[in-house]
Structure formats: structure tokens, C-alpha cells
Amino acid sequence: MKTKYRNPMYLWTTKNALYRLLFSAFWLLLLTLLFLLNSCDDFVRVDLPGSQLTAAAVYEDPITADAAMTDVYAKLRDGGLLNGGATGLSFLMGTYADELDFYGNSQNGAVAFYQNSLLASNSDVKNLWDASYNQIYGANAVIEGVTNSTSLSAATRAQLKGEALFVRALVHFYLSTTFGAVPYITSTDYEYNRHVSRMPVASLHAAVQDDLEASILLLPEDYVSSDRTRPNRYAAHALLARVALYAGLWNEASDEASAVLNHTALYSTVTDLDAVFLKESPSTVWQFSSSAIGGNTLEAGTFNFVVGPPPLAALTSDFMTSFEANDLRKTHWTNSVSDGTTTWYHPYKYKANGDSGSAVEFTVVLRMGELYLIRAEARVRAGDLIGGKEDLNIVRHLAGLNDTTAMSASALLDSILAERRVELFCEFGHRFFDLKRFNQVQPVLSAVKSGWNATDVLFPIPDSELNLNPNLAPQNAGY
To answer: Average pLDDT, stretch 160-164?
Structure first.
């Protein structure tokens, strides 16, 4: 009997009361998603729900509460800073830095990024800002909803709150890397949010760390979904390792990376480079699912092309010459296209473009390759040259390369920066952010990009936001 009562189809066909409950839950979910989709464009003007009772009721049922969190992930995947299309950081920062040459239409918004001609009125910059704060709003709505829930189990509340804290930290962190000082929003309160001020980057990193440490205590060790599309405790450790590295907290960065790398029951390196970005890869810590059952990644559609000239962008010749001889990443993660006269190269980490019947690849956000390089850098900067060199060589060996010949701390850091370039290219702006961290933006980009200015290290705060909320002033330098 216990097995029968757990069968959803049995309950659906025999229990009219539960049928009505599920039907009501469906409409509550639909109303909530419509609210989220139709909210205003920026965080200071998000409309309040038409019915507070309806909004609260969503978080009294585990199905609708889980769906609200899933919707936040869908928005992360499809729009804003982390989307894999031509409006996300993987593409835009590739053109902004020295990874991609732009070949697209002159009316494409990426032109301003490629030519370093961003303005505070740029609509693409505003869209990144708006989408990010709407995603944060969605995460805050989940946090508040599950915290106030009287019906959800303790385990469900912990899981959803932990995930929402993780997302809130993630988006704020990326906002700080692109815009610098930004508001850290922890509430859905309209009146409060419309008057917020920008938080210094150091303070913001501390707030991100607080959220991630809280999420670690709430999230389980195991994944709630076998495809690793819902973050577990180790995903929070992985992101915290990156944040600590950016904040200059070397021991913390090393320890957080180790928390993941040492958990060999869940994670292992992949020797076949063509398998690193498959959706079943054991080196993946967290990834976005595809938007359709047979769909794959937005990245494949953005970067891959089969005839020249490129319709959108191609890898720069300078990048292609940065690979060492015999580096397997050059042959497995890039692909060439020729028209008989000219040869172009494009990123080929994601190979499945479009519907393949069943998904082959998901967008990998956090993976072991980065964590080894985080720990390598953190160890070297903390004085552990032997440990740092060992981690660096793990990544090199997987790429078919011999041990690094670097011996001194400065030489090892140069080698790590070079390794990050060919390991993490066209993944969420790593290259540009690494140049910033290593104080190499000006010497590197001024040599390869026309009109590069030192102030281009940050995007402008959208002028429409400054007009709405004077507390966001002053504008970033150079705009």
C-alpha cells in the first residue's frame, strides 16, 4: 500500500481532493511565473505581486516552490551576464578583451564592446544590469518565501534557501567584476531598493562570502538532480574559492578549492578533452540544463560556424598562437574553417549545435580545471611554490603538456596566467577578469585594441539608473 500511495498517477486518478490541490498549485505557479516574467526592467522598479496571498501560497507547496527556483535558473541560462548567447559575458567579454575578433553586422550591440566604445546610454549594458537584478529579485523572493513558509519540510526549505543564496552571491559577484561597486540587494522591498547605494567591491565580496558560507550550511553534499544542474554544497565551495581568490584571500581560496578537489567520490578529472563538456562529465561541479529535452547549449550556436567568413566572431590570431606546441586543447577545443584563401578558428568546446534528440552537452559554469588553477595560484601567492606547481602540472598533463619549467613565484604566476588563458577561454569572461587581477589589462589590451583606455576596466552604470536613483552616483570613471 505504501508504494501505491506514492504513485502520482494513482493519486491523480483516485484522489479528487489531491487533484484539486495539484490543479490549484498549477495555477499558482502560472500566476507567479507570469508575475516574474512581467516585472519591470530594473530592480528599483519591480512591481509588487497583485496578491501577497497568492505569492505566499506558492511557497507552501514543494512543487510550486521548487518551480519558482527552477525559473531563476532558466533566467540565468537564457539572459543576463551568464547566458551563452551573443549578449552574455562569454561572448561579449571575448570581444572586449583579446579572445575574439568581431565579424558581425555593424548594428550588432557587440560592436561597442569590440571597439571599446561603451556609453552609459548603451542598451546592452542596461540589459545586463536589468537582467541581473531581476535574477537577484527572483532569488530574494525564494529566500523570503521559503523562510516564511509554514508547510514546507525543513529539508526543502534548507535546499531552496541554500540554492537562492548561492544564486544571489553568484550574480552579485559577476556584477562587481563588470561594474565595480554596485548595490547588494537582499530584499524584495520596493521602497527600500529604490534608494539603495553602491557597495564598495571589498565589502561586496564579503557579503558574497557570507551568502556562500550560509548556503554551504544549508545545501546537501549530494546533488538533488543527477545532472548537476542544481548546486550542492560543493558548488558553493567552488564559487567561494573563486571569490576568495579575487579578494586576495589565498589560504581561504586554496582551502575552498581543496574541499571540492578532494571529494573524489563525486569529482574526477577527465582525460578525454572531448568529454569535458558533455553533460555527464565527472569534472563538472555545476551546469545549466538545456532549455529543451533535445536541446544543447547556447554557446554552440553562438561560437560555432561551418563556412567563412565568420557570421559573428572568430578567435584572434594572437590567441591561437598562445598555445604551446602539442597542446591538445588547440586540436580538441578549437576548430578551423577555411574558404580556400583564409582560415578562421572558433571555440569548439561545445560541439552539439541545436536539437540532437536528447541533450548531449550542458553549459558548464563551475568545473575542476578552474579549481586546480585557483588552488595553484593561491598556493603560489601564499608561498607554497611546490604545491602550486603540482596543481598547475595536473592541468598541463591533461592537455598533453610536460611539467612547467617555471621555478620562481613570478615565473609560476606568469605560467598560471598563460594556462588560464588556454584553459578557460570564452568561458564567462575569465580572460578579461584575469588580466584585471594580474594588473595586465592596460599593457596587454592597449597593445592589441585601438582606443583602449585605462578606465575601460569597468562598464558604465546605466545612466537611466543614475537618473532614477541619485544614490548610485558617482558614475564610473571615464563615462
So the answer is: 98
